[in-house]
Amino acid sequence: MGAAFHGVFPYLVSPVEADGRVREAVLARLCDDLIKAGVHGLTPLGSTGEFAYLDRAQKRRVVETTIAAAAGRVPVVAGVAATTTAEAVAQTREMEGLGADGVLAILEAYFPLDDAAIEGYFAAIAGATSLPVVLYTNPTFQRADLSLPVIERLSRLPNVVAIKDASSNTGRLLSIMQRTQGRLDVFSASAHIPAAVMLIGGKGWMAGPACVAPRASVRLYELCRAGAWDEAMALQRRLWALNQAFAKYNLAACIKGGLEIQGYAVGDPLPPQAPLSAEGRDDVARLLAAIET
Question: Domains, the chain, ranges and CATH?
Answer without folding.
Answer: 7-214 (3.20.20.70)
